[in-house]
């Protein structure tokens, strides 16, 4: 019998004949890359968790608030972990990455925003 969360709507009993010992397959697939292990986050004195920003991927202006946000790639994280983060936050934490992105992708004069 499996111990499953209550929200799972499957039968918790599995026949023992369906079970097999786990094999990682490294001997059969030696060229397979290791599973991506995310790096440990940095935890500051207040207990806040931080991940290292690897790159700025995109910029957008949110329609309702007209605020600039950037799509951020975190080191060691997969693409589905990318997040849009407010410009002000990134200017405090990684101003050099914002400057690098803006140099490569300058804003057009009509879309230039006052800071």
From TrEMBL:
Pfam families recorded: Chromo
InterPro entries cross-referenced by the UniProt entry: Chromo-like_dom_sf, Chromo/chromo_shadow_dom, Chromo_domain
Cited PROSITE patterns: CHROMO_2 (PS50013)
Domain Chromo, chain residue ranges per copy: 51-113
Protein name according to UniProt: Chromo domain-containing protein
Organism whose genome encodes this protein: Edaphochlamys debaryana
């Amino acid at each position: 019998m499996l111990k499953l969360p209550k929200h799972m709507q499957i039968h918790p009993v599995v026949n023992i004949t369906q079970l097999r010992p786990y094999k990682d397959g490294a001997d059969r697939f030696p060229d397979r890359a290791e599973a991506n292990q995310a790096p440990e986050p940095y935890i500051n004195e207040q207990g806040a968790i931080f991940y290292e920003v690897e790159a700025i991927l995109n910029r957008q202006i949110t329609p309702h608030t007209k605020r600039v946000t950037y799509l951020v790639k975190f080191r060691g994280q997969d693409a589905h972990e990318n997040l849009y983060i407010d410009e002000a936050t990134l200017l405090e934490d990684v101003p050099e990455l914002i400057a690098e992105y803006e140099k490569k992708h300058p804003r057009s004069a009509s879309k230039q925003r006052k800071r």
